[in-house]
Write a structure and sequence with these properties.
By secondary structure, the chain is of the alpha/beta class. The chain has nine helices and four strands; from the N terminus they run βαβαβαβαααααα.
C-alpha cells in the first residue's frame, strides 16, 4: 500500500489518479488531504504512523512550494514530517514549483478533454507561472464571469488524461514523483 499526504483533498485526489495511471488500478492507495500546509506539517507525521500501522509501505508527501524555494520546502517537510514519522527511506517528498496546478497547465490537451469549451494555449514553462491555480481559473473565464475550471473538481479529472512524459518534460518537480512511483512497481 502507498500512502499519500497533501495540503488539501484536491491535491491528494489528483496524486491518487496519477499513481493509479502510472502503476495500474491494482495498487492500494490510502490518502489524506489536509486544510493547508500548516496542518500538513503539524499532523503529517502522525498520519504517516497511522497509515504505516494499516499496512502502508511507501509514502508520498506533497507540499507546494508556493513562493518559497523548493529545496527549503523539502527540508522543512523532511524535518517536520518524514523524520518524526520514522519512514525516511520509504518516502518521497514532492514539491510542485508554485502549486500542483502547474502540472495541470503542462498538458493543455488534457484540460480540453475534460472541459471542451476551454482551449488553453500551450505553456512551455508552467512552473514559472505565479499562482498557477488562479492563473488557470482566470484563463478559463471565456465570456463568463464564473471560471470554467475549478481545481477541486477538475484537477483529478484532468490528471486522468495527462501525458505524464510531457508533464515531466515541462515540470521538473514532477520527475521525483514519477520515478518514485515507477520504482514501486
Amino acid at each position: 500500500m502507498i500512502a499519500v499526504l497533501a495540503e488539501d483533498k484536491s491535491d491528494a485526489d489528483t496524486l491518487v489518479v496519477i499513481i493509479r495511471a502510472l502503476l495500474g488500478n491494482g495498487i492500494k492507495i490510502a490518502h489524506k488531504g489536509f486544510h493547508g500546509c500548516g496542518e500538513l506539517c503539524k499532523k503529517g507525521a502522525v498520519h504517516i504512523e497511522l497509515f504505516k500501522a494499516k499496512g502502508a509501505k511507501k509514502f508520498i508527501v506533497c507540499h507546494d512550494s508556493d513562493r518559497s524555494i523548493p529545496s527549503e520546502v523539502e527540508t522543512k517537510v523532511r524535518r517536520e514530517i518524514i523524520i518524526p514519522s520514522g519512514v525516511n527511506a520509504d518516502a518521497c517528498i514532492v514539491v510542485p514549483v508554485q502549486e500542483i496546478e502547474a502540472w495541470i497547465i503542462a498538458d493543455e490537451k488534457a484540460i480540453s478533454r475534460v472541459i471542451p469549451s476551454f482551449q488553453l494555449n500551450p505553456v512551455a514553462h508552467p512552473e514559472t507561472r505565479e499562482s498557477p491555480k488562479e492563473w488557470l481559473e482566470n484563463q478559463s473565464r471565456v465570456r463568463t464571469v464564473r471560471p470554467l475550471y475549478s481545481h477541486a473538481v477538475h484537477n483529478p479529472r484532468v490528471a486522468a488524461h495527462m501525458d505524464y512524459e510531457k508533464v515531466a518534460m515541462k515540470c521538473p518537480s514532477f520527475r521525483p514523483l514519477m520515478a518514485f512511483v515507477r520504482a514501486c512497481a
